[in-house]
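Feature request disguised as a bug: please show the residue count (402) next to Polygalacturonase in the output. Example input:
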Amino acid sequence: MAPKFGAAILLFLPFLAFIVSAQEPAIFDITKYGAKPGADISGALSSAWKEACLSNTSSRIVIPAGTWSLSQVRLAGPNKSPIDLQVRGTLKAPIGQLPNKDGNWITINYVNYFEISGGGVFDGQGTEAWKQNDCHKNKKCVKLPLNLSFNFINNSYIHDVTTKDSKNFHVNCISSHNVKFQRFTISAPGDSPNTDGIHLGRDSNITIIDSTISTGDDCVSIGDESTEIHIENVTCGPGHGISVGSLGSNTAEKDVVGIYVKNCTFLSTMNGVRVKTWPSAPAHLQVKDLHFENIIMNNVSYPIIIDQEYCPHNLCNLKDPSHVKISNIFIKNIKGTSHYPEAVTMVCSRTNPCENVQIADVDLTYSGKLGPTTTKCANVKPTLVGKLNPPICANITGAKSS
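Example output, currently without the count:
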């Protein structure tokens, strides 16, 4: 059986204790490396980072209070001892193009026992870049940078900081293990394009807890080869909700196993919890052990969605069903309001129907005046428990009540 959320916290404690050791860390203040307000601090930060990575004792890189200009930086390990990047001020990205137009704003790779803290702000200043974003209609669109790109980071703790107005995704966390985001704030307007909050892929044991995410796209998006992802006490909105996928477009994709979304609140988002896979796509993989529990939906357009006919901009052929197999889905205690009548959509693959779907205690009312909430179901026969409003999959023969 997959470990519960509490077990994930217990797994996290040993390395957290290592980061928060009794020994006073060595301090690397960027002002000692030439950082000055109004000037680019990338050189000073890189110099402080290199020395911290060589330290045989735990270290703390300090970006003091104030406003600092940072053109672009790429920080990489390995590090000999734990590092805390303490951001107390506001870092501002260039409004225009970065020095390396193909890179992200802040990239951190190959570190172990790493921490970001300090109460500071990573300001991507993306307003002008959003006006140029035409990727929804132009496959050769200009690649815009992420605020924070984490790759191959392990046993790490990112907390009590804010990322705002990224030009593209705010955060990606790729090929990483045992990482915790806590009291992490993401802020961008609801109409800002492609400003996903946190994107995960090829990760294991990732926790996002006690955080607020406001974006113009998914609050959290979960890609392939993700296992044991725990999202708890997160407020999402505006945005497009919390999504698993889209999946199935690449033959190299691997299974997604163990996704837990609990005690979360969605505020006027486009979607609530969503699983999306491509039809007419080559990949054969499994998505299983998904837990969506104790969730409040406040005026959410589409609160619960399993969509195996995900086909934005008509880029696929619906005649060829999805090859992704979805199973072991547990949906429990979902309450609130739906902006549209269709509150629950479960459209599974014709050739790979969803299996072992359990739905209990759902109460979603329509916030408009067109009538009651409804559901749309295909290729799924869920087990139904408790009070259910709307009636779930009433059009499906074989849906079981208990």
